[in-house]
């Protein structure tokens, strides 16, 4: 399920042009072999950001090169802040599966709620990385944290997806 979400996220995030200049689109997967295998299967037949895509399983953040997305497996719970800090300022969508993933600096964090995979988003982390998250993705997140400025308004701090969706509609109507 997480692999499917990772693939879908790519359609709702905008990367700076320079980050997409050298195909293929690369998803690095840090210590999560099952997710890497399933995501590689999905990407065989799909384009990402109008280009081919590949998955690079890695065992250490030192192996990270020019990927546009990083999924951090649960084995890195203790050094999650270090892993994320090592990519500060780079246009990378960082996705985690930890209870405090957003607090550690991740952009998207998976949560298991009532036996279902859900996700939360930190808009401020996306903006720091130079990424733009589409309102459609924000609207289906279980929680949105940070400030997002729209063309004629702002939605701020922590909001549920319903509140964020209402704020987006209100900003677009102004």
**So what's the CATH class?**
Alpha Beta
Mean pLDDT level: 88
**CA-to-CA gap between the ends?**
38 Å
State the helicity in percent bands.
25-40%
Beta strands, count: 11
Class per helix and strand makeup? alpha/beta
Whole-number radius of gyration?
Answer: 15 Å
CATH architecture: 3-Layer(aba) Sandwich
| Count of structural domains | 1
The H-level CATH homologous superfamily, spelled out, is Response regulator
Number of distinct helices: 7
Architecture blueprint of SSEs:
Blueprint: H1 2-9, E1 13-14, E2 25-30, H2 33-43, E3 53-58, E4 69-72, H3 80-85, E5 93-96, H4 101-104, E6 108-113, E7 116-122, H5 123-128, E8 132-133, H6 135-140, E9 143-145, E10 148-150, E11 153-155, H7 161-173
Parallel strand pairs: 2-3, 2-4, 4-5, 5-6, 7-9
Antiparallel strand pairs: 1-8, 6-7, 10-11
Helix pairs in contact: 1-2
Descriptive keywords:
seven-stranded mixed β-sheet; two-stranded antiparallel sheet
What does this structure look like?
- With 174 residues, the chain is α/β, with parallel strands linked by helices.
- The protein has one domain: Response regulator (Rossmann fold, 3-Layer(aba) Sandwich), CATH 3.40.50.
- Helices cover 31% and strands 26% of the residues.
- The protein has seven helices and eleven strands.
- A seven-stranded mixed beta sheet has the order 3-2-4-5-6-7-9. A two-stranded antiparallel ribbon has the order 1-8. The protein has a two-stranded antiparallel sheet with strand order 10-11.
- Helix 1 packs across helix 2.
- The longest helix is centred in the C-terminal third of the chain and has 13 residues, at 161-173.
- It is globular.
- The mean pLDDT is 88.
């Amino acid at each position: 399920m997480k692999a499917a979400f990772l693939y879908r996220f790519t359609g709702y995030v905008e990367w700076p042009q320079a980050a997409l200049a050298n195909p293929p689109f690369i998803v690095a997967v840090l210590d999560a072999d099952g997710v890497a295998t399933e995501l590689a299967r999905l990407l065989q037949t799909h384009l990402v950001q109008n280009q081919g895509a590949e998955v690079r399983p890695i065992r250490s953040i030192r192996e990270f090169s020019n990927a546009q997305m990083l999924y951090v497996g649960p084995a890195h719970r203790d050094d999650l802040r270090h892993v994320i800090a090592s990519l500060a300022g780079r246009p990378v969508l960082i996705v985690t599966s930890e209870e405090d993933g957003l607090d550690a600096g991740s952009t998207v964090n998976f949560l298991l709620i009532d036996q279902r995979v859900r996700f939360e988003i930190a808009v401020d982390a996306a903006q720091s990385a130079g990424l733009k998250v589409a309102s459609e993705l924000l609207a289906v997140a279980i929680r949105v944290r940070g400030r997002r400025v729209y063309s004629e308004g702002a939605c701020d701090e922590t909001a549920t997806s319903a509140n964020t969706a209402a704020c987006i509609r209100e900003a677009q109507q102004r």
